[in-house]
Write a structure and sequence with these properties.
single chain, 115 residues, three-stranded parallel beta sheet, two-stranded antiparallel ribbon, 5 strands, elongated
Length: 115
């Protein structure tokens, strides 16, 4: 798996994905590259998963965390940045976008959302 962050946009371009497909079996993009957020809410999925899968790559985004500080504003619960928000919405959006798995510090919650 080639890990890809928002700091390397060329890696998730068509050409970048083709290069990755020549040496890897999958990509691990930052989850916001699969389901971006805008104005504090989850947006529509990008075409990243479809394009990667067309090249034979699996997609396992990283790192989905349950704490409010890592979630879009609309999914936060309460004011405590360490409290858990609605991470299930993030997992469900990623699975709906077609990812095969996710990296998470909360694997039990990831499995529950996949249900």
């Amino acid at each position: 798996v080639q890990l890809v962050g928002a700091d390397r946009p060329e890696m998730v371009s068509s050409e970048g994905l083709k290069r990755i497909a020549s040496y890897a079996h999958g990509v691990g993009p930052d989850w916001s590259l699969v389901v971006p957020t805008k104005d504090g809410v989850l947006g529509q999925p990008t075409g990243l998963v479809a394009e990667a899968r067309a090249l034979g790559l699996q997609v396992h985004p990283w790192t989905v965390r349950a704490e409010n500080r890592f979630l879009p504003q609309a999914l936060r619960k309460g004011q405590d940045p360490a409290a858990h928000g609605d991470v299930q919405a993030v997992f469900k959006a990623l699975y709906a976008a077609g990812v095969q798995g996710v990296f998470s510090d909360f694997p039990g919650l990831a499995v529950k959302a996949r249900g």
